[in-house]
C-alpha cells in the first residue's frame, strides 16, 4: 500500500463513493444468483408438467425485476466507482503538475520532457484503470465466485461443485505467476514509451532545424528505432497478458465439461434433477466472467502499481531550491547586491563555472558583464535568481544572504530577460502581462514602447490581441526578444537583468531601448550581459569574465585605458564597425 501513499488524501476524501459503489456491486452479484435458481425451477416445472401460465408469468416477472434491478445498480456503481476513478486521474494529474512546477532547474536539466509527458499521460491513466475497472473487477470476481460456489454447493451438490471447480486453483496459481512477469515487462514498455514521447517532442520542436539540415532520413531512422523498441516491448508484454484470457477460458471450459459430464451421470443415476443440472450449468456460466476478470484484474492492478511506482520516483523527489531558514519579515527588495568569494560548479564538470567572484552593486547602479562564450555570465544570473544553490561564497541582497530571502520575494522583484526567450501561445498582451494578467493596458503599452516593439505590435492584424504561435513562431527573432524585454519591464522590478537579449536587434534600436530603460531603471539596479561593447559602455561598472573568473573590473573609460580582454574586444568591434561603414 506504500506505493499508493500519494493517493491517500484523495482516497480519504472519496472513500464513501467507493464503499457505496462496492455495496451496490455486491447487491448486484446477489441479485444475479436469482436467475439460475429460477431457470432450474422453471425447467423442473416444465419436465414434471406442473408449469402453469400463472407460474410462468411469475417467473418472467421475477426475471424482469432482477434484470431491471441489475441495470439500475450497474448505472449506480459506474457513476460511483468509474466516475471517482476519473476524478482521481484529474486530481493526480494536477498534483503531478503542481509538483513538477516546484522542482528545480537542475531536475529538468537531467530529465527529458517527453519522458515526463509520458508519466503525465500513460502512467496516470494506468493508475486510474487500477482504481476504476481494477477495483470493480476485483470485488465482482471475488464476491461472485464465493456466492456462486456457496449456492452450487448448498442448493445442488457439494461433490459436483468441488469436481467442477478443480481448474480454479490452477487458474489462480497461473495468473499469480504471470502477474510478476507482466509487471516487469510493463515497466520496460512504459520506459520505452517515455523515450518514444521524447523523440516525438524533440523532433516536432526541432522540425525547423531538421528541415534546414535535411535530416529527415536520419531523424526518421532514430524515431523509427524508438518506435520499434516500444512496439517490441509492448508486444512482449502484451503476449503475456493476452495469453491469460484464452488460458482462463480454456480452463473454465474444462469446468463446464466436468460439470456436464459428472452432473449428467448424476441425472442418469437419478440423484440430480434436470432442473438442478440446468441451474448448476447456469451457475458455472456465471463463474466464467469472474475467472476472466481475474486475468484482467491482475493486469490492471500490476500496471497501476508499476505506473504508480514510476510516478512515485518523481513525486518523492524533493525540490532542491526551497524556502529554508528564511526571514519571513523580508517582504521587499531594494536592489543592493554584494557577491563575496562566489565559486560554483555544476557538479558534473572538472572546472568550476565560477570561481572566487567578488562584486558589489549599489541600489540604482548598472552592472555590465562581458566575456567570452562559456565564461560563466549566465551562471552568475542563475545563482542570483536562485535557480541553483550557492556552493561556496555568498550572495547578499540588501544585507541579507540570498538564502534568507523568501524565493517568492526574490523572484517577484527581479525582471529577467533570458538569453533564450520563451513566448507562450497566448496573445501578445498576455505574454507581456505574464506576471500580472490584470496589468493595466496603459502599462503594457508603455513597456512595449520602451522595448521599441509598440509600432510593430500596432502593425499586426489584431494588435495586442494577436495570438502567438507555439514559442512565438509568428514573430521575428528581434521581435521575440523585445516582447520578452517588455514582459520584464512591465513587472516594474527592483532588479532588471538582461542576459544577452539585444543580440537580435540592430545597434540603432538597441540604443533607443537602452536610453528608454535608463528612465525606467532610475533608482533601480540593472545587470546587462552582452557581447557588444555598444550595449554596455554606459553601465556604471563593467566586469570582464574569463573562464569563470573576473579578470577586469571598472568603467568603460577605465577599462579602455588598460590592456586586456576588454580593450581587445573593443578594438575588434571598432574594426568591424569601420569596415561595415566603409562598404
Ligand atoms: N546545466 C549545466 N550543467 C553543466 N555545465 C553547465 C551547465 N550550464 C552551463 N554549464 C557550463 O558552465 C560554463 C559557463 O556557462 P554559462 O552559460 O554561464 O556561460 P556564458 O558566459 O553565459 O556563455 P554564453 O556567452 O555562451 O551564453 C560553461 O563551461 C558551460 O559549459
TrEMBL record:
PROSITE patterns named among the record's database cross-references: ABC_TM1F, ABC_TRANSPORTER_2
Transmembrane segments: 15-35, 55-77, 130-150, 156-177, 240-260, 280-301
Residue ranges occupied by any ABC transmembrane type-1 domain in the UniProt entry: 19-303
Any one GO MF annotation of this record: ATP hydrolysis activity
GO cellular component terms listed in the entry, alphabetical order: plasma membrane
Residue stretches making up the ABC transporter domain: 337-572
Membrane topology label: Multi-pass membrane protein
Key words of the record: ATP-binding, Cell membrane, Membrane, Nucleotide-binding, Transmembrane, Transmembrane helix, Transport
Matches recorded under CDD domains: ABC_6TM_TmrB_like
UniProt-annotated location(s): Cell membrane
Keyword match Transport: yes
A matching Pfam family: ABC_membrane
InterPro entries in the record: AAA+_ATPase, ABC1_TM_dom, ABC1_TM_sf, ABC_transporter-like_ATP-bd, P-loop_NTPase, Type_1_exporter
Stored SUPFAM superfamilies: ABC transporter transmembrane region, P-loop containing nucleoside triphosphate hydrolases
Name of the protein: ABC transporter ATP-binding protein
Organism the protein comes from: Oceanirhabdus seepicola
